[in-house]
Amino acid sequence: MVYIRAKKVKSDQYLYLVKSVWDSKKNTSKQEIVKYLGKASEVVKDDLPLDYRNDPKILSVLASHNPKDIKKREDASKRSKQQLYKKLTEGNIEECVRIYEEYMKIFNASDFFDKILKPVMYKIGEDWASNNISIATEHVASNIAQTLVKIIMDQVSKTPNKKKILICVPVGEEHHLGCDVLETYLSIKGFKVYNMGTSIPTESILTFIENNKPEVMLVSITLEDNISAGQRLVRKVRNEYDIPILIGGFAFQTEKTPKFEGRVIGDVGLESIPKILRNP
Question: What does the alpha-carbon distance between residue 75 and residue 58 come to, in Å, rounded to a whole number?
């Protein structure tokens, strides 16, 4: 059984999606958190995992916490996704920046990356794969998206903390927008980020780790075809260094999770990653 639980902290309520699990040793049920949803007044349908977005009981509870705002916020998100898709595929960076700035009047940067930019880029990739848009249009959109992320990066203030994070991709992985988004978001959160988001030889990554001593390594994989290369990369790093390794990305939107000599976090929301980094 899955349901929403509210927890009050000072004057605000925060929502969690939880499930009841039977503990055979204690002969009783216990709660396990499926996902932390966020501040009650800011949670919308898109914050729910896909499997629960159409559950009437869950949606009813969600609406009860912000019945006036939820429709407005969902409409704003839908409109922003439609507009961003159009302007990215047209190559209009100025309008993309405007869409971001308008969105920020209601939401925050992590919402924009997680709920707008990420699903839009997934749709662009899917539309190219199904021949709804050309490869040229897909390349234009990806380049504009990367420019947008860099512009946002330049706008945010950064106060680095002590934790150093290395972000990289395995050999053959040419998609690095996810790395750029992670760099921007984690920098906003105060991490010192080394973004090695282009495909380079594994030996170069090992040399970088030796010289810079990152405390956590994040490996981003977009295409399933690159999972084997990712497994080899992680195995070689693990043989040389005792460093926590986290592996995620769009390639892990599959039913069966591939085995890695590290922690597979899959295609998780950005808001979850700082917490994961604190306990990798």
Answer: 19
Amino acid occupying residue 18 = V
Q: Does 136 share its domain with 123?
A: yes
pLDDT band at 69 (very low <50, low <70, confident <90, very high): low
Mean model confidence pLDDT for the chain: 85
119: which residues sit within 8 A by CB, 6+ positions away?
Answer: 81
Task: Give me the mean pLDDT over the 95-110 stretch.
Answer: 84
Which residue in 60, 68, 70 sits closest to 38, CA to CA?
70
Give rounded-to-5 percent helix, strand, coil for the chain: 50, 20, 30
188, 248: one domain = yes
Across 89-101, average pLDDT:
93
Give the single-character DSSP code of 53. T
Domain that holds residue 56: 2-65
Last residue of a domain, one of 96, 127, 155: 155
Q: At what angle do helices 135-155 and 177-188 cross, to 10 degrees?
A: 10
pTM of the model: 0.59
Determine how many CB atoms are found less than 10 A away from the CB of residue 78. 12
* Separation of alpha carbons 226 and 64, rounded Å: 43
How does pLDDT run across 57-66, given as a tens digit for each residue? 787 777 777 6
Tokens encoding 262: 């590290």
Gap between the Cα atoms of 85 and 236, Å rounded = 39
Residue that has been written with the tokens 């049920």 in this structure: 29
The answer to whether residues 220 and 169 touch, using CB atoms and an 8 Å cutoff, is yes
Q: What's the CA gap between 89 and 140, in Å, rounded?
A: 7
Q: Which of 215, 167, 213, 175 is nearest to 194 (CA)?
A: 167
pLDDT at 25: 74
190 and 149 Cβ atoms separated by less than 8 Å: no
